[in-house]
Design a protein that fits this description.
- The chain is α+β, with helices and mostly antiparallel strands.
- It has helices spanning 20-26, 45-56, 63-74, 91-96, 117-125, 129-138, and strands spanning 2-9, 15-17, 29-34, 40-44, 77-80, 86-88, 102-109, 112-116.
- Strands 1-7-8-4-3-5 form a 6-stranded antiparallel β-sheet.
- The radius of gyration is 16 Å and the shape is globular.
């Protein structure tokens, strides 16, 4: 399970250091793809394969299912960790998530999210946790 928050930077070539705690669980190769809310999602290969199977099992006749699968699969990239613990984020993914320099890597259970620092701060500022907690209670989650 991934958890915690780490601040890092993307260098001029698009490389990002992955925190060692995350690398221990991800291994030397893993998948980065477009995520929800304007961030990137990072999956260990086993978790990605399970997610990919769910996506490819969606009915092709359903237009929203096709769009949903296309969103995640078309933007996905297999990345490798170099000897310095960095990955190269493809330009299209950096552009999608507005990753220029300062980024935040956030562990959220089965995946990691990569946010531009600005978007992370703004997203967090817009959250009213009381309202969100009430909505989660409606989904069966209580604190």
């Amino acid at each position: 399970m991934f958890m915690s928050e780490y601040n890092h930077t993307v260098d001029a070539k698009g490389r990002l250091i992955v925190p060692s705690k995350f690398r221990e669980q991800l291994g030397d190769e893993f998948v980065v793809t477009k995520g929800m809310d304007g961030c990137l999602f990072v999956y260990a290969n086993d978790d990605w394969n399970a997610f990919e199977q769910k996506l490819t099992s969606l009915p092709l006749i359903n237009k929203e299912a096709r769009k949903f699968a296309r969103f995640f699969l078309a933007g996905a990239a297999q990345v490798e960790v170099d000897k310095q613990g960095r990955i190269l984020l493809p330009a299209n993914l950096r552009e999608f998530a507005s990753l220029e320099k300062d980024v935040v890597l956030v562990g959220v259970g089965s995946r990691i999210e990569i946010w531009s620092r600005e978007n992370w701060v703004n997203m967090d500022a817009d959250s009213d946790m009381d309202d969100i907690a009430a909505a989660m209670e409606g989904l069966g989650l209580t604190i």
